[in-house]
Design goal:
CATH architecture of chain D: Orthogonal Bundle
Largest sheet of chain B: 2 strands, antiparallel
Strand content of chain B: under 5%
CATH architecture of chain B: Orthogonal Bundle
Chains: A alpha/beta (316), B mainly alpha (314), C alpha/beta (497), D mainly alpha (318)
Distance between the termini of chain B: 23 Å
Strand order of the largest sheet of chain D: 1-2
Order of helices and strands of chain D: HHHHHHHEEHHHHHHH
Number of domains of chain D: 1
Largest sheet of chain D: 2 strands, antiparallel
Largest interface: B-D, 52 and 49 residues
Strand order of the largest sheet of chain B: 1-2
Number of domains of chain B: 1
Structural class of chain D: mainly alpha
Helix content of chain D: over 70%
Distance between the termini of chain D: 17 Å
Number of strands of chain D: 2
Structural class of chain B: mainly alpha
Bound molecules: adenosine-5'-triphosphate, magnesium ion
Number of strands of chain B: 2
Helix content of chain B: over 70%
Oligomer: heterotetramer
CATH class of chain B: Mainly Alpha
Chain lengths: 316, 314, 497, 318
C-alpha cells in the first residue's frame, strides 16, 4: 500500500513545531516495516490564515491522500476542509481543535491540559493562596481553552484567588518580563500558573529575584527539566507532546486503510475530537523525564506518541 | 541646544510620571529593585535602538526592520558557541558580532549600491534571516548562556548595578562621542540632512551609510547576546518584539524618522519610557483587550508630544 | 484706484524677520517689478499674496475690499497665479499634467487624457518653439533641463483664469530666446489688462519690460516709482541702502600675465560633451559661454568627478583620473553650484557643519576639534562678510545669498588649485555678486585657476580673462582681448546653431 | 526607440507581470495540477484579501504615506462583521447591512489614521503602528476568542458559483473595474501629485490635507473589503487574523512598482504584486524544497523579486 500525507505547519517560531514535524516524518518512515509506504509532503512556514489555506489548497492540487494540519485558526478552515473532503481527502487537525465537520482532531485536550497543571498547583498550595497566570496570545483558541481550564479548577478552590492574568504571547522573554513586573507589584503571591516556554522565563525571573518560595507550573524542554532537577524547583508540568502530529499520522494511516474507529471521534467542543493521553511531569517522575531526554539538544521537548500498535488498537 | 533638549526632558518627565502613577496603582512598582529590573529590560531594547537610531539619523528613509532577525540569529549562534561555559564567552562574542556585521553589511550594500529603499531591503532581509534561523535550528543545537553572561545581565556587579547597565551607559557615552565629537558623526548628520550636498562636500556617502547598517547589525547582535544572558537559553524568535519597539524608542526620544536630526540620549529615555509603560500595563489587572487599547492610545498620546512634522504653510 | 494693495505686511520666522513692512500697489495693465537684495523679503511678500505663507499681520485689499487669503487655493480663486522661485512641479508627472495640475479636465467623472494633452499644449503654445529637444507634453518633468522646467512652471502659471500673475525670478535659467518668448507673452497678457509682478536680479531685463518698480530693503518697502523716472544707479542705491559702489557690469579685465598651465584637457567627451580640449593657466579666470545648457555645466561637473568621461585630463602636467568628487577634491578641485538646495546646503544642519566638511576630509581628521575649527570657520566667513547670527544656527536661517557665502567658505579653509564655478551667482543680489567676483579675482591673483560659468552674459564678459563659447557640447570659439564683447559673444553662440 | 526610452515607456507593472508569469510557468512545470481551474480559483479566493489590502496600501503610498495598521483593520472588520451577522441574523438583508456597517468601521479606522498622520502630523510609521495596537485591542474586545462562525449563506455565496463561474472571479472582476476607474479618477491623480512633492502640490493650490486624509479613509475602506473577503474564505471571526498581512501588503505594493517615496506606481501592479507574494510559498513547496529550507528559499525569492522590481523601475526613472 502507498499513501501520501501532507503535513501543514503555519508557524515556525518555536522548536516544538520543528520537533513536531520531525517526529511525524519519522513515524511515516516507520510504516515501511508494516509494508506500507507513507510519503510525507511538508509545508512549514510562517504564514497567516490565508497562507495556511493556500497550504491546504496546494495539497488538494497535488492530490494527497490525507492532510494533517496544525491550524492557525479553529474555524477559518471550514470552507477549505470542505473542499478537501469533496476531493476525497482525509483531514486531521492536531494541537488545536477545529470546528469543521469534515475533519477530526487528534491531539490533547488543551482544557484538560490546563486543568491538570492547575489542579497540581492548587493541591500543592493546599487549596489556598494567591496566584497569577501568564498566558499565551489573547484571542488564540488554544490559549482561551487553557484559560477556561485553569479558571474552572481554581474556581473549585474557594481560598485560591487569581490576582492577575497577563499575556506573554508564548514568548519566553516576554514571560520573564511579565513575571518580573508581577513580582514587583504582587510580592506576596504563592503560585504562578504559566504556559509552555514562558514558564522557563517566569522561573528565571523568580530565581533572579531570589524567590524560591513560589510554586509555579513548568515546561517540558530539556533545558528546563535540567534546571528543575539541578535546583530542585517546586514545579509540575503537564505535557503537550510534540509527538501529537506523529500520533495523528498513525491514526490517519489506519483510516486510509479503510479501518473504522472502535469509538468514533466525538469528544471536544466541536464533537470531532479524539483525545490523546496527557502525561504529567512532577517531582515523582522527574528523573524518568530527565533520562528520556538524555543526550538531546537543550530545546528538545519531552515527548510521547501513539505507536503504530497503539493507534491500530484504536480501530476495529 | 535647548531645541534638542526639549524632547529628552519631556520623555524623562513622562518616565517619572509613569513611575509615580504605577506606584499609586500598584504599590511596589517604583521600588528600587523594580526600577533596576525595568532598566535591564530597557537596556536590552536601548542597545537595539542604538543601531536603529544611527540608521534613522543617516536619512534617506533609513530604517532597519531586520533587527529582530539578527537578534535571534546572534542569540542562537552565541548560545551554540558558548554552550553554557564561560570559556566560550569570548569566541561567542566574536561570532555574534561577525554575524551581525555580515547581515548589516548586506543591508548596507543593498541600500547604497543597489539603491533599494531601506524599508524594503531590511524587510526582505528579515524574511531571509528568519528562514536562516529555521535551517540553523535544525542543524545546530541551541545552547545555554555562560554563567558569567547571565550574571552580567541580571546580577548586581559594580556599585550594585549589573554589568549590562554599565554597558548601556558606556554605549550611551560612546554614541554621544561618536555623534558629536567625531568626523564620522558629522558625516552621519550630513548624509541624513542632504546626501547630495554631502557627497559634493567630500563625504564618502556610500561608505558612511553602509557602515550605519553594519553598526546596526552589530548593536543588534550585542543585544542578542545580552538577551541570551537575560533568558538563559536561546529560543526561537527571541528578537521578534524588538523590531517596532526599537523604532518607537527612537521616535519617542526625539529623533524624527526623516533623519539628519536627533541623538541617542533621548533614545535611551525613549526605551525606558516604553518599557515602563508596558510594565505598568502588565501589572494592571484588566483584560488583554483593555491593555492593548490603553497601550495603543497611550502611544498615540506620547507621539503627540513629539515627532510632529512641520506644516506646509510657513 | 489700484487693483490690489498690500500694506504693512509682516512676517517673522523665529528670530528672522523676513518682512517688516511690505507694501505694494498693483494697477491693472502694468508690469510691476520688485527689486531687492537677497533675503530682503521679495519672495515672502509674493508668497503671502499667493496664500502659501501666512503673514503675521498686514492688510490686503482687492478693488478696495479687504480680503483674506488663507491658502493657495483661495488666492487662485481671487485670480492670483504665481510662478515660484523654487518651482512647484511634480517631477514624476508629465508636462501636461503639471501644467493643468490645479484642474485636470474630466469626462464622466474620469480624467480625460486627450483633453489634458490638448489643453496643456494650447497653454504651452507660445513657448513651443523655444523649448528645444527632448521636450514633449508627455515627457516626465523630472527628465527635463532646468530651463525647460522653468518654461513648464511659466505655462502652469498662465493656465486657467487669473488676472494677477506673479513671477518670482522666472528667467534665472532661461536663455535669450526663451526669455524673449516669455516677455512677448507677458506683453500680450498686459495688453489684456492683467497685472504682472516680476522679480529679477537682472537689471537689463527690468528696464527692458518693467513699467513700475518697487524696491524692498531688509523686509521693508523703501520706494515705488515708474521705471521711466528712475535709473539703474538709483535702484541699486536704494537696494543696498548706501552708495552704489562699483558695478559687476564693468568692462572686461586686463589680461593678466599668464601663469604656468595648471589644467589641460585633451579630447574630453561624455554624454553631453564632445571632444573638449582646453588649457587653463594659474591665475586665470576662464569663462564658459554660449547659450544655456550647451555643455558648460556638464564640463564642470565632469571635472568634479560627477560624470563619466573619456579623454585626457592633466593637472600640472600629470594625467589624473577623476572618478569621484572625493578624488577631485584630493586633486585640488573645488566646485560651487548655484543650485544651493540640492548641491550646496546641508540643510537642517548648522553653519559650522556646512563650512567644515571639506577641511575635515582634506586633513584626514577623525576627531572633531570644535574649538580650533570654530576660529577657522569665523575667519573664512569673515572673508566674504557673511551675515549670520552664530555658527551654531542652522544654515536655513540665512538668506539665499548668505547661504551661498557659507558654501563658498568651505573652499577657503584649505588650499584649492582649480575652482569650478557652476553659475554660482544664481539668485544672488547685486551687492553680494560684487563681493563675490572681487573675491574670485583675488583668489585668481593668488594663483588659483578658475573655470567660470554664469548664465548672465554681462557677468561673464566682465569677469573672464578668456571666454570659451560652447555649442552642443563643443567649444566653437575662443574670445580673448578685445573680442570679449557682447556682440561677439552673442554671434559666436548663435553662429553654429 | 532607444534602450532608455523603451524602459521609460513600458508600463510600470511590466517587471512584476513578467515575474508572475515566470512563477506560474515554474509552478506548472513542477506540478501541472497547480494550473488547474480548481487551483487558480483557490489562488484567487485565497489572495483576494491581500489584493484588496495591497491596493489600499498603494493608495496611501501614492501620497508618500504608509499604513501599518491595515492588518489590524482587516482583523477588526472580520470580527465586527461576523459579530454583526450573528446579532442581526442571517437574512440577506441583515448580511448586507452588516457588510455595509463593517465597511463603515474600516472607513472610520482610516479616518483616525488620517487625522493622526495628516492633521496632527504624527509620523506615519509609528502612528499607524500605534493605531494597529489600538485596533487589535478593539478586535479582542469585540471578540475575545476566535471562532464565531459566519452565516452559511455568506460564505457559501463567497465560495460558490454563479452561472457556473466561481463567485471569487466576480469579486476579482469588480476589483479590477474599481482600480481601472480609480486610476483614471481625479482623486488618484491628485494623490500622486501630492506624493510627488507635497509642498509643490500645496503651493499649486491642491487641498493637500483633505486629499491625504481621503487617501487614508480609502485605504481603510479597502482594508474592510479585504476583511470581508477573508471572512468569506474563512467563514469565521478571528481577531488575530491580520497578523502577517500588513508587511505583505507593503511588499506587494513595492513589488508592483510603487515607490515608498510617493508619486509613482500603479494599482494594477500592486494586485499583481499580491499574487506574486501569494504564489511564492506554493512555488517553493511545489519545487520540492525540504521543509526546513522552505522559509529561507521563500525569503530569498521575495528579496530577489523586490530587488528586480526596484532595479528595473529605478533604472527607468534614473
Ligand atoms: N550618492 C551617490 N550616488 C551615486 N554615486 C555615488 C554616490 N556616492 C558615491 N558614489 C560613487 O560611488 C563610488 C564610491 O564613492 P565614495 O563616496 O565611497 O568614494 P571613495 O571611494 O571613498 O572615494 P576615495 O577613493 O577618493 O576616497 C564613486 O564612484 C562615487 O562616484
Ligand atoms: N521658510 C523659512 N524659514 C526660515 N526663514 C525663512 C524662510 N523663508 C524665508 N526666510 C528668511 O526670510 C528672509 C526673506 O526671505 P525671502 O525668500 O523673502 O527673500 P528674497 O528677497 O526672496 O531673497 P532672494 O533674492 O534670495 O530670493 C530671509 O532672511 C530668509 O532667510
Ligand atoms: Mg573612501
Ligand atoms: Mg526669493
Amino acid at each position: 500500500e502507498e499513501f501520501t500525507i501532507g503535513l501543514s505547519n503555519g508557524w515556525v517560531g518555536s522548536e516544538w513545531r520543528t520537533q513536531m514535524i520531525a517526529e511525524a516524518e519519522e513515524a511515516a518512515k516507520a510504516w515501511a516495516d508494516k509494508g506500507v509506504t507513507v510519503t510525507t509532503q511538508v509545508q512549514s512556514a510562517n504564514v497567516d490564515v490565508p497562507g495556511q489555506i493556500a497550504h491546504v489548497r496546494n495539497f488538494i492540487s497535488q492530490g494527497v491522500d490525507a492532510i494533517i494540519i496544525n491550524p492557525n485558526s479553529p474555524t477559518a478552515f471550514d470552507p477549505v476542509f470542505a473542499e478537501a473532503a469533496d476531493a476525497g481527502i482525509l483531514v486531521i487537525a492536531t494541537d488545536a481543535e477545529v470546528s469543521s465537520p469534515d475533519a477530526i482532531y487528534v491531539g490533547i485536550d488543551q482544557k484538560g491540559w490546563a486543568e491538570m497543571s492547575a489542579r497540581w498547583l492548587a493541591e500543592t498550595l493546599e487549596g489556598k493562596g494567591t496566584v497569577v497566570a501568564i498566558n499565551g496570545v489573547a484571542g488564540h483558541p488554544a490559549n482561551e481553552m487553557r484559560v477556561a481550564g485553569y479558571q474552572e479548577v481554581f474556581g473549585e478552590f474557594p481560598d485560591i484567588e487569581i490576582v492577575n492574568e497577563v499575556n506573554g504571547n508564548w514568548d519566553q522573554a516576554q514571560g520573564q518580563q511579565a513575571m518580573q513586573n508581577i513580582l514587583a507589584t504582587y510580592p506576596d503571591i504563592d503560585g504562578v500558573w504559566v504556559q509552555d516556554g514562558m514558564a522557563a522565563g517566569a522561573w528565571r525571573a523568580m530565581q533572579d529575584a531570589g524567590r524560591d518560595d513560589i510554586y509555579a507550573t513548568g515546561e517540558i524542554r530539556k533545558d528546563f527539566i535540567d534546571i528543575w532537577s539541578e535546583n530542585k524547583l517546586k514545579s509540575g508540568a503537564s505535557v503537550n507532546p510534540p509527538g501529537v502530529m506523529a500520533s495523528a499520522l498513525n491514526v490517519a494511516v489506519n483510516m486510509l486503510q479503510g479501518k473504522k474507529l472502535k469509538e468514533p471521534a466525538t469528544a471536544g467542543v466541536y464533537g470531532n475530537a479524539l483525545y490523546l493521553p496527557i502525561p504529567f511531569i512532577s517531582d515523582e517522575n522527574l528523573s524518568e523525564a530527565s533520562q528520556a531526554l538524555e543526550g538531546q539538544p537543550g530545546y528538545t521537548s519531552f515527548t510521547s506518541e501513539l505507536s503504530i500498535g497503539d493507534a491500530t488498537a484504536l480501530f476495529e | 541646544m535647548s531645541g534638542a533638549l526639549k524632547p529628552i526632558l519631556i520623555a524623562a518627565g513622562l518616565v517619572v510620571l509613569l513611575m509615580i502613577a504605577g506606584e499609586m496603582v500598584s504599590p511596589g512598582f517604583a521600588s528600587p529593585e523594580q526600577i533596576l529590573r525595568l532598566s535591564i529590560v530597557a537596556a536590552l531594547l536601548g542597545i537595539v535602538a542604538a543601531g536603529q537610531n544611527l540608521v534613522i539619523l543617516g536619512g534617506r528613509e533609513g530604517i532597519d526592520l531586520s533587527v529582530g532577525g539578527v537578534i535571534s540569529l546572534a542569540a542562537l549562534v552565541a548560545g551554540n558557541v558558548m554552550s553554557g561555559s564561560d570559556a566560550g564567552l569570548f569566541p561567542a562574542i566574536l561570532a555574534c558580532i561577525a554575524v551581525g556585521s555580515l547581515i548589516g553589511l548586506l543591508n548596507g550594500l543593498g541600500v547604497t549600491l543597489l539603491r533599494i529603499p531601506p524599508l524594503v531591503m531590511t524587510l526582505g532581509m528579515l524574511g531571509v534571516v528568519q528562514g536562516l534561523l529555521v535551517v540553523a535550528r535544525n542543524g545546530i543545537p541551541s545552547g545555554r548562556a555562560a554563567p558569567m553572561l547571565s550574571d552580567f545581565v541580571s546580577q548586581p556587579q559594580w556599585l550594585g548595578l549589573p554589568g549590562i547597565l554599565w554597558l548601556w551607559l558606556l554605549i550611551g557615552l560612546a554614541m554621544a562621542g561618536l555623534l558629536n565629537r567625531t568626523v564620522f558623526g558629522q558625516r552621519i548628520f550630513s548624509i541624513g540632512a542632504n546626501e547630495g550636498a554631502a557627497r559634493l562636500a567630500g563625504v564618502p556617502t556610500r561608505v558612511t551609510r553602509t557602515l550605519l547598517y553594519v553598526l546596526s547589525g552589530v548593536f543588534s547582535a550585542i543585544a542578542g547576546l545580552c538577551i541570551l544572558g537575560y533568558s538563559g537559553s536561546s529560543f526561537a524568535n527571541v528578537g521578534g518584539q524588538y523590531m517596532l519597539a526599537s523604532i518607537i524608542a527612537v521616535v519617542l526620544g526625539g529623533t524624527p524618522l526623516s533623519g539628519g536630526r536627533g541623538g541617542y540620549t533621548g533614545t535611551m529615555i525613549g526605551a525606558l519610557l516604553l518599557v515602563v509603560l508596558q510594565g505598568l500595563l502588565t501589572t494592571l489587572s484588566i483584560d488583554e483587550s483593555g491593555r492593548q487599547i490603553i497601550f495603543g492610545s497611550a502611544l498615540i498620546v506620547l507621539l503627540l508630544f513629539y515627532g510632529r512634522s512641520s506644516g506646509l504653510r510657513g | 484706484m489700484p487693483h490690489l494693495t498690500m500694506t504693512d505686511m509682516h512676517k517673522a520666522y523665529g528670530a528672522t524677520k523676513a518682512l517688516t513692512s511690505g507694501r505694494i500697489e498693483l494697477f491693472p495693465g502694468e508690469l510691476h517689478v520688485i527689486m531687492g537684495a537677497n533675503g530682503s523679503g521679495k519672495s515672502t511678500l509674493c508668497k503671502i499674496l499667493a496664500g502659501s505663507v501666512k503673514p503675521d499681520g498686514g492688510t490686503i485689499t482687492l478693488d478696495g475690499r479687504p480680503v483674506d487669503i488663507p491658502d493657495p487655493k483661495a488666492a487662485r480663486e481671487l485670480g492670483v497665479s504665481i510662478f515660484y522661485q523654487e518651482l512647484s512641479l511634480s517631477k514624476n508627472r508629465t508636462v501636461a499634467e503639471n501644467i493643468l495640475a490645479r484642474d485636470l479636465p474630466t469626462r464622466a467623472g474620469l480624467v480625460d487624457r486627450k483633453a489634458v494633452m490638448a489643453q496643456a499644449a494650447q497653454v504651452f503654445a507660445p513657448f513651443r518653439d523655444v523649448a528645444s529637444d527632448g521636450f514633449s507634453m508627455a515627457a516626465r518633468v523630472g527628465d527635463l533641463r532646468p530651463d525647460q522646467r522653468q518654461l513648464v512652471e511659466i505655462a502652469k502659471t498662465f493656465a486657467g483664469n487669473a488676472d494677477i500673475f506673479i513671477f518670482d525670478e522666472p528667467t534665472s535659467a532661461l536663455d535669450r530666446a526663451q526669455t524673449e518668448a516669455f516677455f512677448k507673452e507677458l506683453d500680450r497678457r498686459k495688453a489684456a489688462g492683467a497685472v504682472i509682478v516680476f522679480i529679477s536680479h537682472r537689471m537689463e531685463e527690468v528696464f527692458e519690460i518693467g513699467d513700475r518698480v518697487t524696491v524692498i530693503r531688509d523686509g521693508e518697502t523703501v520706494s515705488s516709482a515708474p521705471l521711466a523716472e528712475t535709473t539703474r544707479d538709483r535702484i541699486v542705491a536704494e537696494m543696498v541702502g548706501g552708495d552704489s559702489g562699483a558695478s559687476v557690469f564693468a568692462d572686461p579685465p586686463e589680461a593678466p600675465a599668464p601663469g604656468k598651465v595648471r589644467l589641460e584637457l585633451r579630447g574630453v567627451s561624455s554624454r553631453r560633451l564632445r571632444d573638449v580640449s582646453l588649457s587653463l593657466h594659474a591665475g586665470e579666470v576662464l569663462g564658459l559661454g554660449g547659450l544655456h545648457g550647451q555643455g558648460q555645466s556638464d564640463l564642470l561637473r565632469a571635472l568634479f568627478g560627477l560624470e563619466q568621461t573619456t579623454g585626457e585630463v592633466m593637472l600640472d602636467g600629470a594625467p589624473i583620473a577623476l572618478p569621484s568628487p572625493r578624488r577631485a577634491i584630493r586633486g585640488g578641485f573645488g566646485y560651487i553650484s548655484g543650485d544651493r538646495q540640492t548641491d550646496g546646503a546641508i540643510s537642517g544642519r548648522s553653519i559650522f557643519e556646512n563650512v567644515v566638511p571639506i577641511h575635515l576630509f582634506k586633513s584626514r581628521q577623525h576627531i572633531l576639534r570644535r574649538g580650533t575649527l570654530t576660529a577657522e570657520v569665523d575667519r573664512v566667513l569673515q572673508i566674504l562678510a557673511t551675515r549670520h547670527g552664530g555658527t551654531g544656527l542652522p544654515i536655513s536661517s540665512l538668506s539665499g545669498g548668505n547661504q551661498q557665502k557659507v558654501i563658498i567658505s568651505r573652499w577657503l579653509m584649505d588650499e584649492t588649485q582649480v575652482l569650478l564655478l557652476d553659475d554660482p551667482t544664481k539668485g544672488i543680489d547685486l551687492k553680494t555678486k560684487l563681493e563675490l567676483f572681487a573675491l574670485i579675482r583675488s583668489l585668481a591673483d593668488k594663483g588659483l585657476a578658475i573655470l567660470l560659468y554664469t548664465s548672465e552674459d554681462a557677468e561673464l564678459l566682465a569677469n573672464s580673462d578668456r571666454i570659451l563659447v560652447f555649442n552642443n557640447g563643443r567649444i566653437v570659439r575662443e574670445l580673448a582681448g578685445d573680442d570679449r564683447t557682447r556682440l561677439m559673444l552673442t554671434s559666436a553662440a548663435f553662429e553654429a546653431a | 526607440m532607444t534602450h532608455r526610452s523603451l524602459l521609460r515607456t513600458m508600463p510600470p507593472y511590466l517587471p512584476v507581470l513578467i515575474i508572475l508569469i515566470c512563477m506560474f510557468a515554474l509552478n506548472g512545470l513542477a506540478e501541472p495540477n497547480s494550473l488547474s481551474a480548481y487551483a487558480i480559483k483557490g489562488l484567487v479566493s485565497t489572495y483576494l484579501a491581500l489584493m484588496f489590502l495591497a491596493v489600499g496600501q498603494t493608495i496611501v503610498i501614492f501620497a508618500a504615506d504608509i499604513d501599518l495598521s491595515v492588518g489590524a483593520i482587516l482583523g477588526l472588520v472580520n470580527v465586527t462583521v461576523v459579530s454583526l451577522m450573528q446579532a442581526l441574523g442571517d437574512t440577506p438583508g441583515a448580511i448586507l447591512l452588516s457588510m455595509l456597517l463593517a465597511v463603515g468601521v474600516g472607513a472610520a479606522c482610516g479616518a483616525l489614521n488620517g487625522v493622526l498622520v495628516v492633521i496632527l502630523r504624527l509620523q506615519a510609521i509609528v502612528a499607524t503602528f500605534a493605531t494597529s495596537v489600538l485596533f487589535l485591542g478593539l478586535a479582542l474586545w469585540v471578540m475575545p476568542v476566535a471562532g464565531t462562525p459566519a452565516p452559511r449563506l455568506f460564505w457559501r455565496t463567497f465560495g460558490g458559483r454563479i452561472m457556473g463561474i466561481p463567485f471569487a472571479y466576480f469579486v476579482l472582476a469588480a476589483l479590477l473595474v474599481l482600480i481601472f476607474l480609480l486610476a483614471r479618477s481625479r482623486f488618484i491623480q491628485r494623490l500622486l501629485t501630492v506624493g510627488d512633492d507635497q509642498l509643490a502640490a500645496f503651493q499649486t493650490g491642491l487641498p493637500v490635507t483633505s486629499i491625504r486624509v481621503r487617501g487614508y479613509i480609502m485605504c481603510g475602506v479597502f482594508a474592510a473589503f479585504a476583511g470581508l473577503c477573508i471572512t468569506g474564505d474563512t467563514a469565521s471571526g478571528d481577531p488575530n487574523v491580520g497578523g502577517l498581512i500588513t508587511l505583505n501588503s507593503v511588499a506587494a505594493a513595492v513589488l508592483g512598482g510603487a515607490a515608498l517615496s510617493g508619486g509613482v506606481g500603479t494599482l494594477f501592479g500592486s494586485v499583481l504584486g499580491a499574487l506574486v507574494i501569494g504564489l511564492v510559498g506554493s512555488l517553493v513547496f511545489f519545487l520540492g524544497t525540504p521543509s526546513e529550507w522552505q522559509n529561507l528559499v521563500q525569503g530569498l525569492t521575495v528579496l530577489a523579486a523586490l530587488m528586480v522590481g526596484i532595479l528595473f523601475s529605478g533604472r527607468a526613472r534614473a
